[in-house]
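Re: beginner question about structure tokens

> Can someone show what the tokenized structure looks like for a real chain? I only ever see the sequence side.

Sure, here's an example I had lying around. Input first:
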Amino acid sequence: MPSVIDESSLPSRSKLANIDKTDIHNRLPRLTPRKKAPSPQNPLPIPQTPPLPLPSDPSRVEFHDPTRRILSPHDHELFQASPTYNLILSFVFSISEAAADTKITAINIADAPETVRRILSILSSVEEIISQCPPADQGGSRFGNPSFRNFLDAISAESSPWHSSLGLTSPSAISEVSNYLHNSFGNRARIDYGSGHELNFIIWLLCLNRLSLLPPSTFPALALLVFPRYIALMRKIQSTYYLEPAGSHGVWGLDDYHFLPFLFGASQLLHHPYIRPLSIHNELVLEEEGDEYLYLSMVRETMASKSVKGLKWTQPMLDDISGAKNWEKVEQGMRRMFVKEVLGKLPVMQHFLFGSLVPAAEGMSREEELGVKLEAEEREGGEVVVEKDGVRHVHRDDAWGDCCGIKIPSTVAAKQEAKKKGEEEGLRRIPFD
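And the corresponding structure tokens:
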């Protein structure tokens, strides 16, 4: 039943006419525009560049073959709090800063220091060995080619004279330093390659720095001559021997194999007048500027190795990063990623080698104490005894697990096999893209 309104309680028309409209306006609540929600802040601080310590006197160094010392989460924590951790950060970030706002062609090989030219010569010699160790016929298999092991054996045989040419005279020093170079091209047992092997190449250069052979004045040449040459060499090795991506994140990573070129490349582009992070979607920019900037070169190579057109489908992380405001934001993000995804990941760092030039922290485990075989002595599959949550267990790099990853063939291998069969085609577009 509808309610009955008492009309006597309502104001009369005469009273309504006498109400001050200004007073009503003042009584109404004011409409205030909604404030834009602040963008979420990255909780990880921007890693700074620690000061680079002076090299030690080589005559006082007791050289020995490097071994794995990160065999448990506790070992990893000790490493992250050690002077060696800061030494690696300092060296990597200093090389990156040396590349700031500089094109690759700005560094002339003829003007490079003698040690840098000898390193480039060593990398050229490594490339010549590829032709001496052709890949075996695998009947169309896209997994790692066993001839890669012959390639690594040939490198080991030539290693001593190479390091002698760099100025190393002590056999024990050559033995220690050369271990890092041997591990720069991939794992012999698993026939794979990842950011840990890339890190070995950087540590090889760091060892030469600790021996006063690569002072800070050589860092621009290391970033823009040596490292691009190494990346080009690795691309050839990867496509020849079908190296499997070690611990690859697939489409959720920057690249199947490499990380540091994105850090150095972002530094190159820090204050570029017209190339923006979004420019990686412009094929003309990639074509014209890819030879000058590592970041663009890596994007171009990544796109060429995929069978689908569009970074948002093949490398969504790169696609997301392209939305950054400027290259400074990208470079800061790459620093964070190096700390978190390379040095901060146990599956990567459990293979890291510690010697006299890159020493382990006090209290870190030893392989012999835990009964762990040397990595070179492990059978194919790379079984390693590690400790997790206080429990020792064996993990395998060729099986599914929370600390490794599924064994997968590389996209490079798929592309090369398609070429052999004459089935190669252009990039396919995703429908409705």
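Each token stands for a local structural state, so reading them left to right follows the chain. Confidence is low (pLDDT under 50) at residues 380-384, 388-405, 425-433.
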